[in-house]
Specification:
242 residues; 0% strand; mainly alpha
Length: 242
């Protein structure tokens, strides 16, 4: 069991347990920086991400924004599959653009102009979802755009996390299926995968009990804005150092 992969998953599972994303959003660039190739990174992270999201969905399935989820299925998923299939061996660095956008979204609560601009932008939600699918298929960073969309909708914390979780789990499921159909078989040994999965589930249950339950809706919105800003800054730094 590689210690660097275990440490990465412990950290990112805590983040995903609170916000619905994190294992792919932060785990992907971290493992790439550690020298793992993209398809291997996906094969390690995707099953863990799906498992955590399923637990979140089972707990709060009645809070899911079904309209948004249906639109994600229609407009994002086909492009995730298409672009992962086309460029499975090519990496593009668009983290700089996404990083700036996340910081922009995070500042909406302190800038009426930014909030108005976001409302105008997200009137074209279908186009946004297509872009999100393309970005996720190419870079595995579509979760950042998903969190930005959820934050803009100003949903209560359970609605936000449950909706993100079901969308993100669907992203990951179709990515796994795509890897299977293109014939990728270079993943981690089954025993190691099961150990990582069990460890991540324990981390999720502890985070749920001792952190998530203690955060009210107002604080969650504030923490979510900070999370978006930090995500944007980290993506900017990674892009500038690439």
């Amino acid at each position: 069991m590689p210690v660097d992969i275990l440490a990465t998953l412990l950290l990112t599972t805590v983040i995903q347990s609170i916000f619905g994303v994190g294992i792919l959003l932060f785990g992907t660039p971290l493992l790439l920086l550690l020298g793992y190739e993209f398809s291997y990174t996906l094969s390690v992270l995707l099953p863990i991400s799906i498992a955590i999201n399923i637990l979140q969905v089972l707990k709060h399935y009645s809070y899911i924004d079904l309209k948004l989820y249906k639109n994600v299925l229609l407009y994002s998923i086909p492009f995730i599959v298409l672009f992962l299939f086309i460029i499975s061996s090519i990496r593009l660095n668009i983290g700089l653009i996404i990083g700036v956008f996340l910081i922009f979204v995070a500042l909406k609560s302190v800038s009426p102009r930014i909030e108005t601009a976001l409302k105008v932008m997200l009137r074209y939600e279908k186009l946004y979802l297509i872009l999100m699918g393309i970005v996720h298929g190419i870079t595995n960073l579509g979760g950042s755009l998903l969190t930005a969309l959820a934050h803009e909708k100003n949903l209560p914390k359970n609605n936000t996390r449950a909706t993100i979780a079901i969308c993100y789990a669907t992203f990951a499921l179709f990515q796994l299926l795509t890897l299977y159909f293109i014939g990728y078989d270079g993943g981690m040994p089954y025993a190691d995968t099961m150990l990582l999965l069990q460890t991540s589930i324990v981390v999720f249950l502890l985070t749920e009990e001792f952190i998530y339950k203690k955060i009210d809706n107002k604080k969650y919105t504030q923490f979510f804005a900070v999370f978006l800003a930090l995500s944007g800054i980290l993506l900017l730094l990674k892009s500038l150092n690439a």
